[in-house]
Amino acid sequence: MLYCSAEANSDYQVKTIEKMLIDLGYECTMYPFADSNDLAAITTTAAKESDVIYVPTDNTVASNTGIIDGICRPAKIPVVTGEEGICAGCGVATLSIDYYDLGFATGEMAYKILTGESDISQMPVEYAPNFSKKYNKEICDELGIEIPEGYEAIE
Hints:
Layout: E1 2-4, H1 8-23, E2 31-33, H2 36-49, E3 53-55, H3 59-62, H4 65-72, E4 79-81, H5 84-90, E5 93-97, H6 99-114, E6 131-135, H7 137-143, E7 152-153
Parallel strand pairs: 1-2, 3-4, 4-5, 6-7
Antiparallel strand pairs: 5-6
């Protein structure tokens, strides 16, 4: 798992995914990097030591997908991503959040708070209701990866 250790959201995601993957019998290694200056070196190490790389919804990764793609694709290491934008830049597949739905759900929560309908300290955590199964056709074709049914190519 490749992620920016300076982003709390990324740290949370990889720890959550790690538990799930270990329960499924996979071996996981963390490859944290501090900032974009470390990204190429850490990605190179991860690509040499891994069969597949997972990157979460990480802002630093999102801004630097070209670096990851330039290292992982020539090394024939597939990258699974946490969202569609990152997948379009360097990934093979994603179970992507829908930012529109997430924003809409956030707006509904804000409305409840602003109108006094809900107390923020009492509100349950809510999640975006929809996920999209997407894949990057170009990278999958180049790496010879066959995508399961139900996935849609990223346009």
